[in-house]
Structure formats: C-alpha cells, structure tokens
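To close the section, here is one more complete example, presented without commentary so you can practise reading it yourself. The ligand is calcium ion.
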Amino acid sequence: MKHRALVLVIPVLISALALIGVADHHPEDPDTDNDGMPDAYELFFGLNPTNRADAHLDFDGDGLNNLQEAALLTDPFASDTDRDGFADDIDANPISRAYIQWGAPQFTTGDNYDYVRPEWCLGAYKTGGEWLADITTMQSAWHAASTEPPNVGRLSIKLDRSILTNNLLYALHYLDISNSSLYVDLLDTNGAVVGNGDLFGNLMTGSNRETIVRLALPLVEYTNASIVQLRRGAGEVTVFESQLYIDEDGDGLDADQERQLGTSDYRINSDDVSFTCSPSGSSTNNLALGGLTDTGYAVDSTNHNP
Ligand SMILES: [Ca+2]
Ligand SMILES: [Ca+2]
Ligand SMILES: [Ca+2]
Ligand SMILES: [Ca+2]
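Output:
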C-alpha cells in the first residue's frame, strides 16, 4: 500500500506571511522581476521572483499561464486548484472549495497548513501527530501513531462565520483502520465543543482501505460553530485530504458550480444528472476529491483505491 512508503520530512519553511501579501493584491506588493506576479506569490508557489520568463509558462497545463493563476490566486501546479472537477480555466470560481492536501511540504509550516482559499476559510492546522510526505509520489498525509495516548491528535479547519452562513459538506480521504477511532466535532471560537460533539460517530469501520466520506456539517443549526475538528480517539490514524464546500442540495455540485451551470443549489432535480457524472475538468493530482458522481448528502462512504 502506498501509505507504507511515506516518510517523515522536515517541512519546507516557507513563511506563512508570504501569502498574506498575495491575498489582497496591493499595488505596492514588490514584484522584483516586473512580470506582474508579486514576489510573495512567486516565492510561495516556488516560481522565480527574479526571472520574468516564468509568467507566461503553464506548468499544470490548465490553459492558464502563471500570470493568470497569480491574478486568480490559484495554484500554478494544480490544474484544478479546488478539486471540484472543473479545471481552473473553465471554473467560474476556481477557489470555491477549501481543499487541503494534509502534509504537502509546499503548504505546510510547522503545524499550519498555509493554502486554503475561499474567503470563508481562515486556516487549517494540526495539533499533535506528524506530517508525512513522499516527494516522489507527491502523496502526503497527517499521521498519528497507535502508540500515541488516547485523544491525542487533531486536525482543525477554521471558518469565518461572519461570511459563511450555509451548511458545508466535509469530504474526507483517510485510511480506514481497524481498532482505531476518529470523530468530527464542531467548536466555537474559544475551542469549546458546540452541541454534543461527535456528530457522526466513529468514522473508522475497519475496512483497512483508503476511504472517502462526505459528511453534512449542520452549520446553519450551530451558528457559533467556527472550527471543524477531526479528533483521533485511539489507534493509528492517517488522513490524506479534506475538502469543505457549500452544496445545499447534496448533488455534488457546489453553489458556485450551480451558479455557473444556471441550476439551483436548493433543488437537486434542477441539475443535469449526466453532467454531474462526467467531470469536464482534469486534474493532475492523484488524490483529487472532486467527486462529481457523489449523490449522498448524509454519510456516504466509498472505497477510493480498492
Ligand atoms: Ca514577479
Ligand atoms: Ca517571475
Ligand atoms: Ca496553469
Ligand atoms: Ca476547480
């Protein structure tokens, strides 16, 4: 199994501050090579801030050159930045979903995950456990060993509830290990559990396979819920990817895609079903969660790599 080959690496120390300058596109942002891409963007994604020749290259082959990617704040090395199945060049909102490839060295600084783009997503981080990454396969993960004490190890995603008033779907790609436990809680800004916690019970069913679940987070009901927390109970836990998106009717198309297609995100039968089954975007990333074939709004488990 691929995950066995993962090795612990020292996170690449890219300043998290670098992207702050990118977010607002201030005209005063330094652009040393005058290629139109701020130095902060170039450094964050590993472009060359002293060579203007990279502005017109298209490393991920999505039809947008790096200069266009910089303007959209998309990832110049991912053809479908938000992993929704719509490639960046045809996606009306290419950063509509908060997609997190846990442990990806280019996006990880200490405990923090530095690149989550929808304006309602404030950040992501781990508490305990370790990042794993395999540079060759580009696969990465968050891992907590079975030897860790019970209740050690969490992954958190912070939401801006002054912007986000919808429910979210939470897609999660993890290794479903027997004799382990993994739970989802919602927390308020002070870190206190909202409601009773443990919204879905133990996500580990013991199939010993990579699994993707899609969980409906009741954020409309819990207006003070500001943190989505994935909590290890016990045993070994390996989590590859998370993705948060607005999909009120649960048809797999997020609100921005429905707007783009002219369908309604509140009526599942307003959509062209055949379209949902044939994602038009291609992704070069082997762990893409952009499952437009998804039909489940409640807990829905599918084996990713049988
Ligand atoms: Ca530049
Ligand atoms: Ca450059
Ligand atoms: Ca590109
Ligand atoms: Ca996309």
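Once you have examined the tokens, check your reading against these statements. The CA atoms of residues 185 and 198 lie 5 Å apart. The chain has one domain: 2-8+79-303.
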